[in-house]
UniProtKB/TrEMBL annotation:
Name of protein: Homeobox-leucine zipper protein
Biological processes, Gene Ontology terms: positive regulation of DNA-templated transcription
Annotated InterPro entries: HD, HDZip_class_I_plant, Homeobox_CS, Homeodomain-like_sf, HTH_motif, Leu_zip_homeo
This protein's record includes keyword Repressor: no
Cross-referenced PROSITE patterns: HOMEOBOX_1, HOMEOBOX_2
Gene3D superfamilies registered for this protein in UniProt: 1.20.5.400, Homeodomain-like (1.10.10.60)
A GO term, aspect molecular function: DNA-binding transcription factor activity, RNA polymerase II-specific
Domain (Homeobox) ranges: 81-141
Keyword annotations of the record: Coiled coil, DNA-binding, Homeobox, Nucleus, Transcription, Transcription regulation
Lineage, uppermost ranks: Eukaryota, Viridiplantae, Streptophyta, Embryophyta, Tracheophyta
Amino acid sequence: MVDGTVFSAASSLTTLLPNQTPASASQPLDSIFHSSSSSSSPFLGSRSIVSFGGVQGGKGCNESFFLPYDDNGDEDTDEYFHQPEKKRRLSVEQVQFLEKSFDEENKLEPERKIRLAKELGLQPRQVAIWFQNRRARWKTKQMEKDYDSLHACYNDLKASYDDLLREKDKLQAEVAKLSEKVLEREKLEEGKFYRAETKEFQEPLQKSMIDSASEGEGSKVDISSAKSDMFDSSESPRYTDGVHSALLETGDSSYVFEPDQSDMSQDEGDNLSKTLLPHYMFPKLEDVGYSDQPHNSCDFGFPEEEDQAIWSWSY
DNA sequence: TTGTGTTTTATTGCCTCC
DNA sequence: GGAGGCAATAAAACACAA
């Protein structure tokens, strides 16, 4: 690239003169450009580029940039600003000045732009461009800051969510353990209940049957079988229906059965315990967050949408 | 010295506002 | 419709390692 090559040459030249004042630094360059512009050198198109020594790398003071950019007809200034358009870096002082101005207000009104341009010896357009680029840099930095704080926030939330999850598991295990205990205890209680009820129901009935047998000759009741039936009936005091009564009357002992806990199905056991125990002692899996069904108040998990909203928000 | 990555300056095209 | 802002991009300027 021709311009780049040319510029490198100019840049190298100015690098050799790092402490020169801009005015003195520009002189050799001026000679280069003057000679080049007057020759057929490929140096300078309308957009040829050059670096002014004092500006290079922002090192060294470039006082000329603080001259009015186009106001006094000064020959040097005029010459400087009538160079073909050149891309050059601003001096440290210029940048500091602009930074300070930017800190005060990052938008640039026309009057301010003109004033800054005059104070810095720049084209108003350069000032505008600098503010434009500075705003872009500021925005990028701001986004980085926002990202950092959001990421920290995310980490905090995730940590507390994990804590809650662990606590939920722990509580769930505890509930399961207690439920088991309650079931066992319930079975024991059931046995006691059965025996007590049998005794309570059997004695009066037995007595009444004996009484009625002794009252009438026509009575064919076999006391022994009645006793057996009564024992049977004690399985449930609710057996006051006709069928059971008929069985009692016919003395059919084939219906007699021993009360057997093993006859109680698991469902019955469940139903019983659920009848006797509060609902919260038997949480369903889906109630404690193992289902995508609508959650009830026992749900310690996050609603699905919230989960997605939180965890899909990744970087 | 040179290659390469980053920063800075400047342009372009589009959009919004007055 | 012109001025100004912004995003995307180009390209110079710069830093730095090999």
